[in-house]
Amino acid sequence: MEESSELQSEENKVSNEKNKKRKLKTPAQLKALEDFYNEHKYPTEEMKLVLAEELGLTEKQISGWFCHRRLKDKRLMKDEAVANGRQDRSSGVIQDRGSGLGQDSCGSSKHADHRYLDPKEVESHGLYNHELSVADMTHRRRNHYPENVSGVDDTSSESSSFLQERFSQGQDPYDMEPSRHLTPNGALPPLNPKGAVKMGHKPSGYLKVKGEIEHAAITAVRKQLGRHYLEDGPLLGIEFDPLPPGAFECQTADTANEPYSVANPLLSNSPEIFAAKRQPSLSSRYDSYYTKFRSQDSHMEGADFGSLHESDFQDKQDKKACQNIKQRQSLYGYTNNFPGRNTFPDLYEDSTGEASAYNSNKSHRMSTKHGVEGMRSDSASNHSDHYEEKLTVKQKTLMLHGYDNINPKNIQRSEHVKSKPSSSIHNSRVPMDTEERGLSARMAKEEMFKGNRKAKNTYCDVEGAGMLSNEIMVAKRAKVDMLQQYNVKKSPVAEMELKKIQRSVAEMPSSFSEDETADTSSSLDY
DNA sequence: TTGTGTTTTATTGCCTCC
DNA sequence: GGAGGCAATAAAACACAA
């Protein structure tokens, strides 16, 4: 298969000139192109050249493919817009596009068409509904090649993520291209929520915002309940001990405004709460969701590993195994192919639109981190749980090596993955331009998904057990370790990477403690 | 096996921008 | 005027039902 793909690629180059009979792109080429397209809808000439070189295609073919791909996207978005329009009219629910914050920029049908957008803007934003379209299509493509795309595993396939690394150095954990969810050993990952794409129908506008609406409703109820609402109250059916006399004597003056802090002193200083109170507008849907999620998880600070769904866990582990390979490649060969741009920092900081939507995501993640750090110190002081501290270190090193082991900015970004939605989203809120609004909505969606999974898992872990926080942490830790071991066994690539990283860690400056390096090794599987 | 519909690829012409 | 992008079109490849 591998040989045939390469052969076919070579054949493409030669035979395309000889006869005009069209050649289908190999699955690996398609995967690479799709991946790249998700990052850069309008690749520069250099990018095209490199892509062409990597994929064994001509630049013309690359250009043509991207052109057609954009057309395809546009077509799909039109269809979707029509479908959504119908749905929205019939349901009368909040429009999906833009999810509130980005509505002005993405909600109008006018913007459903690339033609009305600055191409650069389109690229850097990603049109709002783009992910779904691409996901849908890549999904279809995967069906189109039932023999398993990753089974090709030829050089082009290798170069796909590789190229992505080179040009974007970003990985959105919630990107929905199935191609990225293929495991390094060629097996399809276990079903996960993202697999819902498989259901064939894209989520309608209503379905997509339904969860948000529910959270908003919960928040509303919560505010109505005021002090009576206990975030971390006992499970239903548990009887309370009688309160001691005077138990309510020392309430804050305005408890109605501080239901959370009453319920959970840990949160009283939370900037999230502050922000939630400050933000009664549309965005409060997310804010309140974050708050809810965080409250549920107030004892879980630092134990985010266990809160990952195993499928996602596997996904991330698989992706990282591949990424690590690519990252190392990028270190010795392609760190700066394009002078003046496309280095990682450049991609991050380039605000001209060349950088993909990841830029914004990353910056968000970076900013998110700070709030989380702040909260972490809070919870740490309250919990005095050494496991938590250890996990924090572990997570840091894990993220450092698992995601981005080069760039400090990337490290920060990686922190975001484990971080909870934080106040910095709100605290750093300044008058947003269109791009930021659209981005904000998207980020909120991402965070919501993470939060959903996390909250669910948290509940699962403590369900009916009444565990003390330490026990919870231990349980979670054990779960994480188990999953890590499982993933090492399951993924030979990850195992190989593990050994390689271990070697490279041995060469690291002595400032890295042994503990950290040890954690790093196991964290690879994250 | 065949016919039909869909998707993908290649080509060409036009338009816009620099 | 050249480069890049979009749109239209043709044709090959593919999926699927009869």
From TrEMBL:
SMART domains with a match to the protein in the record: HOX
DNA-binding region range list: 18-77
GO cellular component annotations of the record: nucleus
Pfam families xrefs: Homeodomain
Intracellular or extracellular location(s): Nucleus
Sequence ranges of Low complexity compositional bias: 157-169
Every Homeobox domain range: 16-76
Main location: nucleus
Name of this protein: Homeobox domain-containing protein
Gene assigned in the entry: LOC100805913
